[in-house]
Amino acid sequence: MLDKPIVDSYKSYTRRRNRVFIVLILTLLLTSAISLSLGSSNMSLADLVSALLGNEESTNSTIIWHIRFPRIIGAVLAGWALAMSGVVLQCILHNPLASPYTLGISQGAAFGAALAITVIGFQPTEVNSAILNFLSLGTGFFAFLGASATTCVLLILSQKRKLSSEAIILSGVALSALASAGTMMIQYFASDIEVASIVFWTFGDVSRASWKDLSLVAIFLLPSFIYFMLNRWNMNAIMEGAEVAKTLGVNAEKMIKINIMLAALVTSLVVATFGVIGFIGLAAPHITRLLVGGDHRHLLPQSCITGALLLLVSDTIARNILSPVVLPVGIITSFMGAPLFLYMLMKGGNRKF
Fold this sequence. Notes:
Blueprint: H1 4-37, H2 45-53, H3 59-93, H4 105-120, H5 129-159, H6 165-189, H7 192-202, H8 211-230, H9 232-239, H10 242-247, H11 252-274, H12 280-292, H13 296-320, H14 329-347
Helix pairs in contact: 1-3, 1-13, 2-3, 3-8, 3-11, 3-12, 3-13, 4-5, 4-6, 4-7, 4-11, 5-6, 5-11, 8-11, 12-13, 13-14
């Protein structure tokens, strides 16, 4: 039987992590309310409540329900998905610098989307909404292929070639450069409209998604999140090494392949819907790890909330810092994430975490 001081210490630690979870949820809700009221057309609390409950034909109701609210939901979904992918990739690769952006998965998805735009012939001014929906699905599929190709290369390098953590990150940088070069080459030969469409995809912006797009993201994100939540103990075992996981009855090789493909799927879906949004998948897990530790039972769900909160705050800043000019949120997240990435490199990105 465990000593009482150990049990009490564990219960106290668990209560603290639960308190952090509650604070994160409340902060996300509060930030959402603040984000709803801020913008080029600022609203008081009374105006906000009236717009939410009142006549949909009023100007404030149109702004809330058709502009700001979808944008907030998009930021929450994208931040949730990218943070979730970051936690999974860091666990699988045993590398604290791993994320969809630093490993080139996001850039691979962007290359796939750019290829789809030119191959399919995306001409938004010449097609009706039904064809636009089909083209959006096709672009998402090509984005998934691009992300999957990058992911497969990284998986082969990590498992077959037994590369170190530093080498995996450098491989991701190389693949990112290769995908970016491919995207630039496509832009060079593309028409003016296609170039504009590609640039539209490569700028991370959560305002571009419709309610149908958000529903599609949620449909794929929810089952992936449930799967990862059901395998939190297995992820803890994998963190201790493949041999330890095997002794605990975890099929590490199979789980790694499933996890990394699901991470690529949700990343590609985010890129296809919102564009390239960097460093959320890197920053959110590490901020959360400082708060609740490395146990994936708590790290995974709370990292998702942290990622949603970070992207929502970034988007609120992007909408208001140069109002009425609205910046793409990818610019804000890059300014936020690049110093963190450099800090972690200086601290030693290959240490156990």
